[in-house]
Design brief:
Length: 495
């Protein structure tokens, strides 16, 4: 039988996850899979780069699929080979060095690239960044930053978004004076409102991070190597290291040159197929679906599952209809959860909030028509699973909103493992669900560390570890229950 040739461009979190999903459904060994990846590594968890920079993880710790993983599954991986050309008529792709691969189905998973703001002095005379200027996007970037940090005294991070703050936190561990320069009035403005940003700013300042707001960097100063930065208001700041973290944009140039339809991202329909090109698909940060580009892990997983279902024949009519975005992370030691909208938008929207800056606590709900359409929670991870549940299923809220913010004060239980569906994602960093944790326990992993080793849950930012432990306790009680006692089957059927 002739095998169906699938070529995947991109070996990041989207491309490798799609390959994993497709092979898991390929019981008849019908697919011949080839992957092109720009980086010379296997697939790794990009979310954990800041932990590598901070010294909490080694590069090996964040590998998801090492090079041996591909060989063991018969996948041809061209690691470190950038694709230069796609020929839609010949159904082929050509990589650097003349590597050629023909396809029956092509999957674009080219991800994103760092935005490099316009400023004088970034580029050295011979081309490339001036000595001491870095972007922070890949494992190799991380290695270069750590090597340079060993003899730097002051670093300036351009950009106060999540990645910029994580870079700042990581560099603090290298005994460097760290300054974050942000164009907007508060940090992480894409995820947080001003009040939450102020609380996080206070935490970062206590850690030693110097923050500069509403400041535009216009130039990197120095002769041959970095000596400082200049701002639009005419002021300057001495430094010997600059890290650019001003956001990301989808990698679409290859698709545009090939003739695929591109707006902000590669335009796809609900089948994740490129418009007017049925044998080409796009997933992840490079894909634009219904006018939206997603930069979070959960939508990425949903897309790869739908596409794998369609191509494998497991569910040929599967459609991707968009994602309700939510994420959990740890920033500057604070547990942060963000879902949906961060501000009221319609006249009938209701905002409910509570803050305690000294303890780093902030809780905010956006309610529309008695349904939760957005939330920001900092410093109180216990209420997050319940909020994620009502946000995800769109259930009607109790009229007393305070019960959501302070459930224990009103005698209302937080969402227990028994009531939580198996599909509930517990670890955003590694996309681990409650069901994955339960399966690990049933397979013999009984302690927190054993389950974390088996599933990778809790090995990222660590904010989910209390919930992981609760699920382990629940699963152990059920596994050890006497015959005939209620078990997993009842819960799974109701989920």
């Amino acid at each position: 039988m002739t095998r169906h040739r699938v070529v995947v461009i991109g070996n990041g979190m989207a491309g490798a996850r799609f390959v994993d999903d497709l092979l898991a459904r390929d019981r008849a060994d019908r697919f011949d899979v080839t992957v092109f990846g720009d980086e010379p590594h296997g697939n790794y968890n990009r979310i954990l780069l800041s932990s590598v920079l901070a010294g909490h993880h080694s590069p090996a710790d964040i590998l998801i699929n090492p090079l041996s993983w591909y060989a063991a599954r018969g996948v041809t991986l061209h690691a470190g080979v950038r694709v230069d050309e796609i020929d839609l008529c010949a159904r082929s792709v050509r990589g650097a060095g003349g590597t050629l691969a023909e396809y029956d189905t092509l999957v674009m998973a080219t991800g994103s690239q760092p935005i490099v703001p316009r400023m004088d002095g970034l580029v050295a005379e011979g081309g490339g960044f001036r000595d001491g200027v870095f972007v922070f996007r890949t494992l190799d970037d991380c290695d270069r930053i750590m090597a340079f940090a060993g003899h730097a005294r002051r670093a300036v991070i351009i950009g106060g978004g999540l990645l910029g703050l994580e870079a700042a936190r990581g560099l603090l561990n290298h005994d460097i004076e760290v300054h974050v320069v942000h164009l907007m009035p508060h940090i992480m403005d894409a995820q947080l409102d001003a009040a939450a940003g102020a609380i996080l700013q206070r935490q970062l300042a206590e850690m030693g991070v110097h923050l500069h707001f509403e400041t535009l960097t216009t130039a990197v100063l120095g002769n041959g190597h970095v000596a400082g930065v200049a701002f639009k208001d005419g002021s300057t700041l001495d430094c010997d290291m600059v890290v650019l973290s001003a956001g990301i944009r989808p990698n679409v140039e290859l698709a545009r040159r090939a003739g695929l339809r591109v707006n902000r991202g590669i335009v796809v329909g609900d089948d994740l197929g490129c418009v007017d090109t049925p044998d080409v698909h796009a997933v992840g940060e490079c894909a634009e679906h219904r006018g939206r580009v997603y930069g979070l892990v959960a939508p990425l997983w949903e897309q790869t599952q739908v596409l794998a279902d369609r191509l494998s024949g497991r569910a040929p009519g599967a459609l991707y209809c968009g994602s309700r975005t939510s994420t959990r992370l740890k920033v500057a030691g604070l547990d942060v959860a963000v879902m949906g909208r961060k501000e009221p938008e319609d006249a009938g929207d209701e905002g409910v909030s509570y803050q305690e800056p000294a303890r780093g606590v902030y809780k905010k709900l956006i309610v529309r028509g008695d349904r939760l359409v957005g939330a920001i929670v900092m410093g109180d991870g216990a209420i997050v699973p319940s909020l994620l549940q009502v946000f995800g299923d769109g259930s009607t809220l109790d009229p007393n909103r305070a019960e959501l913010l302070f459930p224990l004060s009103f005698g209302a239980p937080v969402l227990s493992p028994e009531r939580m569906p198996d599909s509930a994602q517990i670890c955003d960093c590694n996309a681990v669900s409650k069901g994955d944790i339960v399966e690990a326990v049933m397979a013999g992993a009984r302690g927190l560390q054993a389950v974390c080793d088996a599933t990778r849950a809790g090995t990222g930012c660590g904010s989910c570890r209390p919930e992981v432990q609760e699920i382990i306790d629940f699963a152990c009680r059920t596994v050890d229950a006497p015959p005939g006692a209620p078990g997993f089957e009842l819960q799974q059927e109701s989920a």
